[in-house]
């Protein structure tokens, strides 16, 4: 079995194992339903009070679909930083290094398998809610294709950032605080709660070029408002961010592994 086949099998195994926890799936679906229903009522009041048909070029229907996608992306994220943190503190990472697998790639493919299942279930619930309350919005096959192209890159980018946070356990007693900061920044600056188009105009160019937007806002915006030029810019930003973060992760990880060897691990 060659290397790529190993990692694909790891991802497939992770996906299958997540399908076994039906109770967790059901609870996540109920939580998502409540969240989207609350947001729908809030945005409905906002559109009514402002007497606007569109806000930031989003109609009310598009806004709910957008929120469904962003919530599905954010809520599908596994606890990567916590798992890496635990591996470092318990010494399990030293055992992982003996195996004929790259630990970062092992974690990446495990995460992708787990996240694919979680996102699929979340987005199914979101689509049902959107259809029930606001109906279908105009969609196109090219737009869906571009969305599906950008989504895995968003997942990889998010993995690299959270894996980097987890590696902080080599120098910090606990990385929970860092992960909390990262998750909140992603929610706000990534456009989970409010599309970046509604932020002050002078802020938008900066926010849209940050990696957080490429994880949440970009794919969701591409789904509800397909645009070839926007898709090209998004894919380019994702590729650049993944390249930069990959180099940073490689450098931090190699430095961290040396600390294990230096301490006799």
TrEMBL record:
Coiled coil: none annotated. Keywords: Membrane, Transmembrane, Transmembrane helix. The chain crosses the membrane at residues 21-43, 63-81, 116-138, 144-172, 179-199, 234-253. Pfam families: ABC2_membrane_6 (PF06182). It comes from the Bacteria. This is ABC-2 family transporter protein.
């Amino acid at each position: 079995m060659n290397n790529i086949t190993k990692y694909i099998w790891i991802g497939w195994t992770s996906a299958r194992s997540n399908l076994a926890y039906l109770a967790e799936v059901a609870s996540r679906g109920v939580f998502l339903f409540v969240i989207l229903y609350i947001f729908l009522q809030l945005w409905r009041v906002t559109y009514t009070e402002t007497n606007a048909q569109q806000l930031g070029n989003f109609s009310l229907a598009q806004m709910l679909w957008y929120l469904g996608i962003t919530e599905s992306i954010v809520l599908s994220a596994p606890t990567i930083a916590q798992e890496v943190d635990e591996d470092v503190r318990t010494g399990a990472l030293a055992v992982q290094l003996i195996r004929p697998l790259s630990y970062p790639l092992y974690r990446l493919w495990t995460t992708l398998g787990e996240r694919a299942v979680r996102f699929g279930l979340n987005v199914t619930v979101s689509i049902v809610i959107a259809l029930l309350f606001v109906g279908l919005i105009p969609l196109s096959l090219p737009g869906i294709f571009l969305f599906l192209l950008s989504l895995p890159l968003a997942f990889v980018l998010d993995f690299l950032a959270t894996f980097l946070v987890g590696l902080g356990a080599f120098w910090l007693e606990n990385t929970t605080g860092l992960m909390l900061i990262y998750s909140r920044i992603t929610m706000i600056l990534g456009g989970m709660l409010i599309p970046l188009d509604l932020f002050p105009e002078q802020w938008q160019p900066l926010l849209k070029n940050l990696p957080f937007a490429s994880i949440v806002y970009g794919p969701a915006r591409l789904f509800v408002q397909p645009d070839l030029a926007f898709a090209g810019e998004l894919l380019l930003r994702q590729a650049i961010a993944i390249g930069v973060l990959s180099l940073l992760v490689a450098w931090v990880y190699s430095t961290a592994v040396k600390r294990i060897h230096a301490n006799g691990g």
